[in-house]
Amino acid sequence: MQQDNAGLSGKVALVTGASRGIGRAIALRLGAAGATVIGTATSESGAAAIAEVLSHNGVAGTGMCLDVSSPESIIAVVKEIAEKFGAPTILVNNAGITRDNILMRMKDDEWDSVINTNLSSIYRMSKACVRGMTKARWGRIINISSVVGSMGNAGQSNYAAAKAGLEGYTRSLARELGSRQITVNAVAPGFIDTDMTRGLPEEHRLNLLAQVPLGRLGDPKEIAGVVAFLAGDEGAYVTGETLHVNGGMYMG
Amino acid sequence: MSTIEERVKKIVCEQLGVKEEEVSNESSFVEDLGADSLDTVELVMALEEEFETEIPDEEAEKITTVQEAIDYVVAHQ
């Protein structure tokens, strides 16, 4: 693993949805930069797997079980982290789900669960963590968006609405918290090689790839590197921004 | 041992970056001492810590002056 000069040593980072894909890459990357990392998953077995991966890679921290759609679960987990490791001052809101359907067939439950898990959760997570950050007079909130929030995508009106909402939320919170040296940014991945995209039909995959000037899928590490930049000192003057990382698929 | 009034005023000075002589019991955090909305939230957080109590949001919103803060702490000792 890449080791850098421990730019985040002494910081506690909380990464939601860290059991696989982009979240897992982010957890490892922040760990490599010296942060103590708490990665969350929706199941105990997922949490245990995260703990194992972190420890195998020499990263301090652990995995914890968290349901980002439950306010009680969030409050309990953030409290436990503060007691065991110190209040998290780096929050990466990565957990997300898709429930794709064309609007005319979409069920209320498909709409509500995507809005709740992908958008309302970041409101709850940030609220639970901001107290510790204002006290520290330092903080980083990094919300993982999607290129779909800017481009739109047929069959993903719920997901696109949540991600576009996340970006507006990011800008407002950046203005609220700027005076405390807390930055709030979004990172919008394009077509990244994860379980989520591996599930797509081959034809759909090829169509998507044809839209990417770099002609390949992104690697989760290429998202994690941007998150690490925003979390560290080098990204300190960037706030309220959405960084697009998509191989040129969408140019803002 | 300092009085509650002294402890409250000390926290107000620290949190809002004002001098002791600027702070009277009647001072309003926002109007007289230049606090913004985030400052007032942090001030309540600091009071909670100092006096080891939890101030619910609906109560916190009513604490707008130094005297109101002192009164709240006295009433909840």
TrEMBL record, chain B:
Location of this chain's protein in the cell: Cytoplasm
What keywords are annotated for this sequence in UniProt? Cytoplasm, Fatty acid biosynthesis, Fatty acid metabolism, Lipid biosynthesis, Lipid metabolism, Phosphopantetheine, Phosphoprotein
GO cellular component terms attached to this protein's record: cytosol; membrane
PROSITE patterns hit by this protein: CARRIER (PS50075), PHOSPHOPANTETHEINE (PS00012)
Please give the Pfam families that the UniProt record associates with this protein: PP-binding
The record's GO molecular-function terms, alphabetically, read: acyl binding; acyl carrier activity
Domain Carrier, by residue range, is 2-77
The record, for InterPro entries, names:
ACP, ACP-like_sf, PP-bd_ACP, Ppantetheine_attach_site
Q: How is it modified after translation?
A: 4'-phosphopantetheine is transferred from CoA to a specific serine of apo-ACP by acpS.
Q: Write down which residues bear the modification named O-(pantetheine 4'-phosphoryl)serine.
A: S37
For the keyword Phosphoprotein, the answer is yes
* GO BP, one annotated term: lipid A biosynthetic process
Identify the pathway: Lipid metabolism; fatty acid biosynthesis; Glycolipid biosynthesis; KDO(2)-lipid A biosynthesis
Q: Highest taxon of the source?
A: Bacteria
Q: HAMAP family given for it? A: Acyl_carrier
Function (record text): Carrier of the growing fatty acid chain in fatty acid biosynthesis.
Q: Which PANTHER family match?
A: ACYL CARRIER PROTEIN (PTHR20863), CARRIER DOMAIN-CONTAINING PROTEIN (PTHR20863:SF76)
Q: Provide the family line.
A: Belongs to the acyl carrier protein (ACP) family.
Q: What is this protein called?
A: Acyl carrier protein
Organism (species)? Parendozoicomonas haliclonae
- According to the entry, what is the taxonomic lineage of the organism? Bacteria, Pseudomonadati, Pseudomonadota, Gammaproteobacteria, Oceanospirillales
